[in-house]
Design a protein that fits this description.
One of its GO terms (molecular function) is ATP binding. Residues 4-233 form the ABC transporter domain. Part of the ABC transporter complex HmuTUV involved in hemin import. Responsible for energy coupling to the transport system. This is ABC transporter ATP-binding protein. The protein is α/β, with parallel strands linked by helices and 253 residues long. It has one domain: Rossmann fold, CATH 3.40.50. It is 32% helix and 30% strand. It has nine helices and eleven strands. The protein has helices at 42-49, 66-72, 88-93, 108-120, 136-149, 166-179, 193-199, 217-220, 223-230, and strands at 2-13, 16-27, 31-35, 56-59, 73-76, 154-158, 185-189, 202-207, 210-215, 232-239, 242-250. The strands form three sheets. The protein has a six-stranded mixed β-sheet with strand order 5-6-7-3-8-9, sandwiched between helices. Strands 2-1-4 form a three-stranded antiparallel β-sheet, with helices on one face. A two-stranded antiparallel ribbon has the order 10-11.
């Protein structure tokens, strides 16, 4: 079953083509890492897939109404700003809005889901703390918890581990992997190619105004792709804990 399908998706910003003719399908039980250099169009591709910016072509999520889309996908943008000093528990509980009538109180099950999401990101005990008082990393984890609490088949997150310390980067990626056991999928942009290689079941490489490669980490992180799209030389091997990726040098012009 496809949770997201894009067909011939193209986006121009300010009259400049950013994404051309992208085709991509994400099925159940996948952790799909969207990788590529700065400015390659990763965020643009995700926002277009959600119908948040104008695009030509088709996206199955963009055609849904707001309620149906909120039940199909949890979206975590790069912007981590929280405007109001809402309690962390109330912030995470916003993820339950698509599943209950307007102004209805949280059910016992809702409270359980929120508590479980907070536990998964290591914020149990932070329930009453004002979200605006959190550190940048804690705020990121609270917003990840909100996405988890939404309990959608698909989670889409734009650089969700940026700004987290190494332990929380790894635990967050493992949490995403754990969702696949429930048939849920995660589509995330990520710059750390080492973590992408280790935790993602599949990588989509964006470059040259489109999707340059799509496949397993070993199929995508090839010397040819790394040289052409990133301009680097790197080493990829299989270690005891999984794939190990190490950048070696920047290639000359």
């Amino acid at each position: 079953m496809s949770l997201l399908e894009m067909r011939d998706l193209s986006v121009s910003l300010g009259g400049r083509p950013v994404i051309r003719h992208a085709d991509l399908a994400i099925g159940a039980g996948e952790v799909v890492g969207l990788i590529g250099p700065n400015g390659a169009g990763k965020t643009t591709l995700m926002r277009a897939a959600l119908g948040l910016i104008p695009a030509s072509g088709e996206s199955t999520l963009a055609t849904l109404d707001e309620t149906a889309r909120a039940r199909a996908v949890a979206w975590m943008p790069q912007d981590r700003h929280i405007a109001w000093p809402v309690a962390v528990e109330a912030l995470v509980a916003l993820g339950r809005l698509p599943h209950r009538p307007w102004r209805a109180s949280l059910t016992t099950e809702d409270h359980r889901i929120v508590a479980d999401a907070l536990r998964q990101v290591g914020l149990a005990g932070f329930e009453a703390r004002a979200a605006t008082k959190l550190s940048a990393g804690e705020r990121t984890r609270a917003l990840i918890a909100r996405a988890l609490a939404q309990q959608t088949p698909l989670v889409m997150a734009d650089e969700p581990i940026a700004g987290l310390d190494p332990a929380h980067q790894m635990s967050t990626m493992q949490t995403f992997c754990d969702l696949t056991a429930q048939g849920r999928s995660v589509f995330l942009s990520i710059h750390d190619l080492g973590l992408a290689a280790r935790y993602c079941t599949r990588l989509v490489l964006v470059g040259e105004q489109g999707i340059a490669a799509d496949g397993s980490p070993g199929q995508v992180l090839t010397p040819q792709h790394l040289a052409r799209i990133f301009g680097i030389e790197a080493h990829l091997s299989n270690g005891k804990e999984g794939p190990v990726f190490q950048p070696l040098r920047v290639l000359g012009p």
